[in-house]
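User: Some background: our group keeps a shared notebook of sequences we're curious about, and every so often someone picks one and asks for a predicted structure to add to the entry. Today it's my turn. The entry only has the sequence so far, pasted here. Could you supply the structure so I can complete it?
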Amino acid sequence: MKKFFLFSMAVILLAACNNSGNNLPQLTGISLNKAKLSLEVGDTYKLNVYYEPEEAETGAPEITWESSKESVASVNANGKVTANKQGKTTITAYCGKLYAECSVEVTAAGVVTDPEIDPEIDPKPEPEPTYGIENGAITKAVFQVSSAGKKVRFSQGNLQYQASTGTWRFAEYQCDMIGDDNSKISDSYSGWIDLFGWGTGGNPTLSSYVNTDYSTFTDWGVNKITNGGNTANQWRTLTADEWEYIITNGNELNNEVEILDSKSKTYKVCRMLLPSDFITPAGVDMSSKMFSDTQWLQLQENGAVFLPAAGNRDVKKVSNVNINGYYSSSTPYEEYKMKDFYFSSYYKISIMGENERSLGCSVRLVQDLK
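Assistant: Of course. Here's the predicted structure to add to the notebook entry:
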């Protein structure tokens, strides 16, 4: 998702973008003449696009422009930015699948700002929005998980692990998923993984296909999670009965939706869970089933949980990313299986399933409420 900070750099995406001429070089990236911009209300400024390589401009897709907050600053089809009112916004130029961004701050006339000011020494930095997150938890995502009234609060995103540093963290955003890079799982891998064999809180890189290697369940919540309080034993995994209670009780608790990941400019398939006291934010149409980054953050602030369809890992083969979701429970099933919460955008179902314990699944932890 976009973060609207004054000091963000222009993003250059090095994905492929085909030119139309047979003999033209491949366009590999675009950038803007300004990565950050300070304007007073009423000012205008022309942003220019640079192509990489320059020769690829001929035949490149047409540039389109977008402002994340047009009420603060708008941009026309030629890249002309107009400052409308005080605030911050991000101007994005698109060229096919490539894009570049410029952070814009608009101040009242006569107010002097320094676009190069160091945020570390700014005496009055603007606080970062929390979007309803506190110490790794979605503050209003409180769900009853038993008929006895037991309640839990969901974490801000799926659990992730970096083997090279032994670091655990929650995904920054609910729609985040690692995907195919889970195939690189190893004791020395420096990237992140988010698909785990059953009960591997003490051995997260275990990728054996032998189900007897997973005979003992160690909860992932016993670990220190850096953005989840960084204290051991603060979190835990839901039981199968608790998952079942959540998905079968309440009003419209279990819906398939798509939410915009503004980092990749793609929509991610998720299962949306709503607490029983959920209040729909003003201006959000719940029947649309597709939510922009602004809309799903509003829903999150009111307690909505989004479980991304992060797929599964069979030894080192990753499949079903952005199609199916497999979420571990702490409950074993028969001798070599386990219970999981399964949903499929293809089959349009969500059920409690049974799978081999060796199957790499997503983990979404919760906190018990007293």
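Suggested note for the entry: DSSP finds two helices and 24 strands in the chain. Residues 240-248 form the longest helix (9 residues).
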